[in-house]
Design goal:
It is a single chain. The chain is mainly α and about 40 residues long. It has one domain. Helices cover about 50% and strands about 0% of the residues. Helix 1 runs antiparallel to helix 2. It is globular. The termini are far apart.
């Protein structure tokens, strides 16, 4: 195991289930959440 895990699907689900449901509608922010790995946000 090389430690490189693809979280693309998990990130997309997180954006749909947690971010968009809370009312965030900015296309730029949604795109950033979909692209940037979570650990770079926190």
């Amino acid at each position: 195991m090389n430690g490189d895990v693809d979280y693309t699907l998990a990130r997309e689900e997180m954006v749909r289930e947690q971010i968009e449901r809370r009312g965030l509608r900015s296309p730029r922010l949604l795109a950033a959440f979909r692209k940037v790995p979570r650990h770079l946000f926190v």
